[in-house]
Input
Amino acid sequence: MTFSVAARCERTGQFAVAVASSSPAVAARCAHAQAELGAVTTQNITDPRLGPTALKLMARGLDAEAACARLQIEASFPAYRQFILIDKQGNTAAFSGARSLGIYGHAQGRDVVSAGNLLSRPDIPDAIIASFMTSDAASQLGARVLLAMRAGLLAGGEAGPIRSAGLILVDREAWPLADLRVDWHDTPLNELIALWALWEPQMHDYVIRAIDPSSAPTFGVPGDL
Output
């Protein structure tokens, strides 16, 4: 019921993960990322524990491929699980269990990995990868992964309509630079792209406010002097 992408920006070291599904609140269960470490999605018959577990494995020094192999051993009911990983070197890995739903698959490229299940056609992850790899590497990573997700949707996306979508972007801070979610909507990916357009110009201001409020820009709202 899900298609997703995880990516790394070679220029900035940022990680981003985006996910869409016919189920509600997909990003709350499926999307995981940690600054200077990596990004993960866990999907299909989702076990949300696998995302944090994968990040802990990479924190112990395992690369994406080794962490993916370990997950397949340690996960309960691995045949029902699907997950993708990217590590701090840009290495990627993906796994689709034999009990993944409907048409499913995954694809990998430089600094990017994608997977999906209950797809309209098997090459949706390839369309996502192609979009990301041909996008402007100087652009903001959040925009690149959202364009890639839109390419996957335009290529056919899921077999049925998607209802929720989410994006996590991490940089150097302990908290996400962006954590945007549309939990139930007729066109959630369009709404998520609109949320990104609102958030992107001001997201670094909130980092400055956290680290050094004396030099932070004003909020520009009524009552803010």
